[in-house]
């Protein structure tokens, strides 16, 4: 069938000071591609300018190892002055940056190269006589909007009669900005109202905010990548939405509210199997709140676990899992050997209530009927992982206890009722164990994630200061007790927390913070997990924080590109806060640059593990000596020691061995 329309799908390059390319696949754009294809109206052409595996966007070296590869091409574009709206192109080659400056790069396939590709495409299709050519351009971060503008300008220079459709996070959160700044006279429209059959609508340039419902649950059209350029992973989105409204997060705006919606289970499993058959082994869950619909997610993991055709699958969730939500799951109890921590058997406390049927969750009558039933709970042996060495010798009263025999040794497990209904199991005769057995309870979701093939766990530690969590409406998620509890559970199921199996996000650059808080959080995280991932705070349009600091943003003359957290837009406010509290302070913005560098340095590996300042190594001893001699920033009215501290701590963290 000859189609009369051509859709050119573009994931633009970006302008930024740093860029981490892993997981950069434009999954929303690839869903749109599937939606357009299913309409039978379009031929499709994809230009993913941020593909690390692309001939024009990737680095020169060949890509052989997914785990170690997260780079795209880059070239210097301009110099930005941190904490300001100033940006310029140096007038000489070999320019040396000032302490308050960073290079701004063009990451990915350069605009100039894209121009050549578009002219080549124009030549290829000149005999096809398409009636309509449309550019579907995705635009992600709000501070990347400039490259979106430049791609649109280029598209219309090469194809003057083309129609532009811009979608993604940027036009959803800042539709007014997109409507006025992208250089086109466009209709700003919600995705619900985009109808491919509406000729009048489709004859206009469109700025599309929010999702297009018909595309939301479709698989990704990864077959559009050229041979040899297809990424070795795919992105899964099995749910949308988050019930919480954190003051700096825009999830409720992106998803039209706080309702959490799930994709059909069979649809998700079908997509996983199809991609696996096509050769994809790495699957990345990109969710607003992965564990909020716990039962549905566990159902997916159990399906993956029991399907032998999916052997070798690797799963990631780089957006992180909410600590408090993970800990709220009911427990799977692990019977283990103390000597090597091998799991011999797993148990749970089950009830005789009928399980909820798919699609009935939240329906009042179903809830009322279950609550009116008499609940009984009993101990269940879920798995014998010893190939027959675990034997049930007494299950006459599983509501009270269960007796096992392991290697000739009797194990008595007794149920302990709890007021919250989450009954526990205790190993009653553990002290008599000659085998050195012990029992530990972990959130079942953690156990299933390990079994299903999760390679890494990302945790939003953010800050150890509870006052800051409260200020940003995050008290529900994280505190140190919860963080430690989840780390212990992760270790019990087999994650090595010290070798980058477990990573922690640490946020800084927020109004109202202090450097001590940042250091304390980073050092604590470095001691407890394998990698510290700095999250530089960006005020996102439409969020509470953005509205709260509108006066400051306007007074600084900031546009959206100036609010990139890597440029420390709130530094002047942070410095003024310190002056107001402690008098004159000589802290400079370069100190914050060094904080960023410090976070990266503490991820330096020594013998395969991240720097642990509490160990007895020379690295750690030097680190502690420098830190102990530092006069607190907040106790020093002059702040004179900060630069020296940062320099010495960076040196200590960079040491590479004994």
UniProtKB/TrEMBL annotation:
Molecular function terms from GO: catalytic activity; iron-sulfur cluster binding; metal ion binding
Organism: Paenibacillus antri
Biological classification of the source: Bacteria, Bacillati, Bacillota, Bacilli, Bacillales
Pfam families: Radical_SAM
Keyword list, A-Z: Iron, Iron-sulfur, Metal-binding, S-adenosyl-L-methionine
PANTHER family cross-referenced by the UniProt entry: ANAEROBIC MAGNESIUM-PROTOPORPHYRIN IX MONOMETHYL ESTER CYCLASE-RELATED, PUTATIVE-RELATED
SUPFAM superfamilies referenced in this protein's UniProt entry, alphabetically: Radical SAM enzymes (SSF102114)
Domain Radical SAM core, chain residue ranges per copy: 228-572
Top-level taxon of the source organism: Bacteria
GO terms for cellular component: cytosol
Protein name: Radical SAM core domain-containing protein
